[in-house]
Inverse folding.
């Protein structure tokens, strides 16, 4: 018997006059709904948040939500029919659903282009300002900086190369905080940018770093570089002075690291500890809320974001602006299709024109990379009812109240100098967008979410607003506000006043839920590799490496002293180590994965079978283009799933990303990898951080209980799987000996992988000894798991050191040899890296960060390297920089990856 509902029990119209309704619960096929005196019968199961028609729609007619078009009918659609487009059909096809889907879409993504009527443009008047103000307790800075809601010591890495330094330094200083109650935290701001030559995002990167430093929530900031990166402290300092940033008001120091990693950490500790009394002396005072600048974000959006949570932020923003404060709307590509609404009330025609220029520039940049700005919605968005960018944008734009005037359209990270309502150019990638708002001066972030995003920023409090009561109840320990109360009858006025009061409390020091959870992420708008479309066709159709080993000359001779290595065997797998791996499927799951592995390691879980647990936190999976970048990512992820050192692997999804668990299952099936060997957990679907932690711990416990016993096995050079890479100058002697080592291992049946960007391949000493031809091309793609031993060259789309070792680790190598000529570099999270040098200038690192200083008779170096490999593989030696924590991990986006 079919279930029967009154319309209000089962669905909601965003606005009267819409022809498509949003299901407020899952409605099975055949469900009967009474609507305005008529009876609708659903032809297919409609998931919660998905849409069905309430009126007949003719072919070519617009489908409407909030009175705006989000597509055009491909055929006649009758009342009660499920509406679905091709991209959502594709998304749902990789999900594990228990009901039938339509065979084909019934509407296409199409919205008429917006054209600004400059001739008829009418400037909008500002809403009347309130005569009186309200106050909060904040940290008064100079007039140009404003008032902070927090008082943090920030440790800022100028580029990605000092990211692991500031993380380690922050960790060492946490215990000091108990003595300084007025300091809210000592936090690292580590990011992925500035690590490659001539970055195309240089201007916005410098602007962001400058803005990070003068944000009013900063009590003091230590800025660190090595002095030799493509972006340096000197460049940041010059940018601050030239653009009149109020750096004079900030307790700060620029430090270029010299010498060993450990001594640099000691130097950093001394600087920060000297500052702590002064930062602690800063006191909260009563300040007008006109000093609040709030960043408005949405992530993990669903069909209710534009109905409850985003309009709530619109109400709060309008209220704040009338008190003299400022609000910032961002995420450029998530407003495409909503231009008529965004520009319905604008301060002047110049602002309207600038807004459209920024949108068009964003479209152009993505087109250079073979992508479309309209491709933004993630798999999680589509699963939860946001069919395309137009529907997502129409809802996202509700963070601007209908009564609110758009006052300014600004560049990414451009300072907000006055009160009013701003639009800031940024990608839809949540963390990248938030970084721009923090740089612009926002001292609070409001983050709406349908799925339950757990995102936080290190030194600006994030208030998370969830769209529905059911999702709030599932994730109550991780969310601040339940906007679902509006769907259940509470007036927007009443709910808005409650949340506005909460805003003042959090601005005054009450910790948000995210701050209590103790995790945060930083991601600046990532570099893009193309500045035009001239190379697009070539890049879209690159040659595909064969995957077969490259033939090399075999005349290395015998090892001076035969050497054997002790490995561990589990049934058909032989490995030098056995780790428990948590692979976050996106940026937002990364810090939770770190927290869980720290907990497991502290408990000593799995020992002695598992040596340790590792999480590979990264910045991908959300808000980046698909195509080649997504293929690179998926291939590299699966390289780690199948890595010989990984005994047990679990994938941890946030729940709303593009590359969710079901996506990864599908990719494993496509690549012939058994998904049953992998665990899966979801922060959002499993009920939040606490519950997902329990689930992950239980899964690993079950795997360990069922595991077979391990045996020790001795092997020769044929058991070695080595990656060799280099940075800086390479002596002929070093090149000659590494070539000899390569030949020995390959001749014995082992594996050697060298990245394409390694200077070794261009040295005569290495290449002439190995190759009989001059044109040697890569044999494997970036991050590809090697299936046949021998000699391989791995494609590397960038010069970025960490991106290189991330791809190299996924190939299956179990140890890396890094020949460094400038300074020791970051190491991999679980594949041991031995850093070696032969140049006299590198002697300053001997006994500190270097593992091997190659000196004396070069003919003895190969044996010396093998002895160090043996000690490392057998866990009798731990590489120095791994021990000290100079560890990093980052996927490449290739030549065509771009933020969306």
């Amino acid at each position: 018997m079919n279930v029967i509902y009154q319309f209000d029990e089962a669905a909601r119209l965003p606005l009267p006059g819409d022809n498509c309704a949003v299901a407020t619960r899952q409605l099975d096929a055949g469900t009967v709904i009474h609507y305005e005196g008529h009876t609708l019968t659903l032809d297919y199961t409609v998931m919660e948040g998905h849409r069905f028609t309430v009126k007949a729609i003719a072919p070519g007619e617009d489908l409407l939500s909030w009175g705006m078009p989000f597509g055009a009918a491909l055929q006649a659609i009758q009342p009660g029919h499920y509406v679905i487009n091709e991209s959502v059909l594709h998304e749902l096809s990789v999900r594990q659903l228990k009901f039938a889907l339509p065979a084909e879409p019934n509407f296409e993504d199409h919205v008429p282009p917006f054209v600004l009527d400059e001739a008829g443009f009418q400037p909008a008047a500002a809403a009347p300002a309130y005569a009186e103000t309200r106050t909060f307790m904040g940290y008064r800075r100079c007039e140009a900086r404003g008032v902070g809601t927090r008082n943090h010591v920030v440790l800022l890495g100028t580029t990605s190369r000092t990211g692991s330094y500031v993380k380690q330094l922050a960790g060492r200083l946490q215990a000091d905080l108990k003595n300084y109650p007025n300091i809210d935290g000592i936090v690292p701001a580590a990011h992925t940018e500035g690590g490659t030559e001539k970055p195309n995002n240089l201007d916005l990167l410098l602007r962001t770093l400058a803005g990070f430093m003068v944000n009013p929530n900063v009590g003091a900031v230590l800025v660190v570089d090595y002095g030799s990166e493509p972006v340096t402290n000197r460049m940041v300092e010059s940018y601050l002075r030239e653009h009149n940033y109020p750096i004079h008001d900030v307790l700060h120091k620029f430090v270029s690291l010299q010498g060993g990693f450990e001594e640099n950490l000691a130097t950093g500790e001394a600087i920060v500890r000297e500052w702590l009394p002064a930062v602690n002396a800063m006191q909260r005072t009563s300040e007008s809320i006109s000093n609040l600048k709030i960043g408005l974000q949405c992530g993990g959006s669903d069909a209710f974001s534009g109905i409850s949570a985003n309009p709530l932020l619109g109400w709060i923003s309008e209220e704040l602006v009338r008190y003299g404060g400022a609000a910032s709307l961002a995420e450029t590509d998530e407003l495409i299709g909503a231009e008529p609404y965004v520009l319905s009330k604008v301060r002047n025609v110049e602002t309207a024109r600038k807004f459209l220029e920024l949108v068009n520039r964003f479209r152009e940049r993505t087109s250079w990379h073979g992508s479309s700005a309209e491709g933004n919605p993630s798999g999680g968005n589509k699963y939860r009812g946001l069919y395309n960018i137009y529907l997502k944008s129409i809802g996202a734009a509700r963070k601007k109240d209908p009564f609110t005037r758009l006052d300014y359209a600004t560049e990414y990270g451009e300072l907000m100098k006055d009160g009013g309502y701003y639009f800031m150019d940024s990608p839809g990638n949540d963390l990248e967008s938030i970084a721009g708002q923090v740089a612009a001066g926002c001292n609070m972030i409001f983050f709406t979410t349908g799925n339950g995003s757990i995102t936080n920023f290190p030194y600006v409090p994030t208030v998370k607003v969830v769209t529905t009561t059911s999702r709030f109840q599932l994730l109550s320990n991780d969310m601040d506000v339940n906007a679902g109360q509006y769907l259940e009858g509470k007036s927007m006025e009443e709910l808005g006043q409650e949340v506005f009061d909460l805003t003042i409390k959090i601005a005054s020091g009450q910790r948000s839920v995210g701050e209590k959870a103790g995790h945060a992420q930083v991601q600046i708008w990532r570099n893009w590799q193309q500045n035009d479309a001239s190379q697009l066709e070539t890049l879209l159709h690159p040659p595909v490496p064969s995957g077969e080993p490259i033939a090399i000359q075999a005349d290395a001779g015998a090892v001076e002293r035969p050497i054997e290595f002790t490995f561990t065997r589990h049934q058909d797998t032989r490995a030098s180590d056995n780790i428990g791996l948590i692979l976050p499927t996106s940026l937002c799951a990364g810090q939770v994965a770190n927290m869980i592995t720290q907990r497991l390691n502290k408990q000593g879980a799995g020992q002695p079978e598992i040596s340790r647990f590792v999480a590979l936190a990264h910045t991908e999976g959300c808000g980046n283009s698909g195509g080649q970048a997504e293929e690179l990512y998926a291939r590299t992820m699966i390289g780690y799933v199948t890595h010989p050192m990984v005994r047990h692997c679990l994938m941890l999804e946030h729940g709303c990303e593009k590359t969710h668990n079901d996506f990864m299952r599908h990719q494993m099936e496509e690549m012939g990898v058994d998904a049953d060997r992998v665990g899966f957990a979801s922060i959002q679907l499993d009920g939040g951080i606490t519950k997902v932690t329990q689930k992950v711990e239980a899964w690993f416990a079950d795997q360990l209980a069922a595991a077979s016993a391990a045996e020790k096995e001795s092997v020769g050079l044929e058991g070695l799987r080595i990656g060799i890479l280099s940075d800086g100058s390479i002596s002929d002697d070093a090149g000659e000996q590494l070539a000899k080592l390569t030949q020995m291992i390959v001749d014995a049946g082992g594996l050697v992988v060298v990245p394409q960007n390694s200077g070794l391949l261009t040295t005569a000493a290495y290449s002439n000894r190995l190759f009989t031809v001059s044109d040697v091309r890569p044999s494997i793609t970036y991050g590809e798991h090697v299936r046949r031993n021998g000699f391989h060259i791995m494609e590397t789309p960038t010069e970025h050191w960490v991106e290189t070792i991330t791809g190299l680790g996924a190939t299956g190598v179990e140890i890396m040899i890094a020949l460094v000529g400038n300074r020791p570099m970051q190491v991999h999270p679980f594949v041991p890296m031995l850093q070696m040098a032969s140049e006299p200038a590198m002697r300053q690192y001997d006994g500190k960060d270097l593992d091997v200083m190659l000196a004396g008779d070069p003919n003895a170096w190969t044996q010396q390297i093998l002895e160090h490999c043996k000690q490392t593989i057998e866990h009798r030696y731990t590489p120095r920089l791994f021990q000290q924590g100079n560890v990093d991990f980052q996927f490449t986006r290739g030549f065509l990856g771009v933020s969306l």
Remarks:
- The longest strand covers residues 218-225.
- The longest helix spans residues 261-280.
